[in-house]
C-alpha cells in the first residue's frame, strides 16, 4: 500500500480516500433533502441564558399542537408494548405515528377524526395499567417528571336545558375541578340525558356526586355526577399512583439520648472512705456467691437429665 507524506505525517492513501468519501456522503443531495438544513441564528443573551425568539416558539407549538400525549401515572411500559396496544385498541382509519421521549408518548394522526375520537374515549389499558391520553401542550412537557394533574371524563345528569350551553357546562365543570372541554355529542346537543365533560383534577380532588345550583325563583337544580374512572391519588403526598389510605410515608428515626452512667463519687477521706470500701467489698462478695450458686444449679440440671456435667460450667 502506498503512503503519502503531508507535513511530515505519514497517511495511508487508501484510508484518506475512504475518509473523504465518508465525509462527502454526509452532504449527499438525497440525504440533505430528507433532513432540515440548519442555519446560523445570532443568539440574544441575558447573561449566560439564551432568549428564545417568539417566532421559534410559535413554530414549535404549531408543529406539535395536533399531537396527543399519553403517559402512565405510576410504572411506565415499554415503547414496543405501548405501540402494539394502541394500534390494536384504536384501529385508526388513517395513519398513526408514535414516538416517545422515554416518559411521554406522542401520537400524530393523519385523520383528524381519529384524533378527536381517541381523545374523547379517554384513558386506555396497556398491560393492565392505565395510560392517560390528553392534548399536547407545553405544560404537559414541563410537568412530565412530576404528574400533579390528570384529565378525566365525567358524566353529568339532569342538567336544566337553560344551562346546556358553553358557559353553563363550564360552570358545572368548575364545581368539580378545572373544565377542559366537552365531547362532540354534548356540543351538538344530540344526547341530552347526560353531558360528557373533561375536567383536569388534582390529587386532593373530592369527587362530588351531586351538585346543587340555585336557578332563581326559589328553585334549586341538583345535577348528578358519574366518574367512569378515578385515578389513584394521595392527598398527603399530592401525587398520583397510590391512595391516601395506603400512604406509607418514610418514618424518620427518633433518636433518644441515653442517660450517661455517673461514676461513683470518690470519698474524701477518713471514715467515709472506709465505709465506701466496705460497701464495694460486700457487693463483690454477693456477686461471687450468685455465680457459685448458678454453677451448682446447672450441675444438678445436667445430673437430672442423665448427662455428663463436664460442659456445665
Automatic annotation (TrEMBL):
Region (Disordered): 263-300
Positions of the DUF4283 domain: 62-138
InterPro entries: At4g02000-like, DUF4283
PANTHER family found in the cross-reference section: GLYCINE-RICH CELL WALL STRUCTURAL PROTEIN 1.8-LIKE, OS10G0362600 PROTEIN
Protein name (database record): DUF4283 domain-containing protein
Species: Aquilegia coerulea (Rocky mountain columbine)
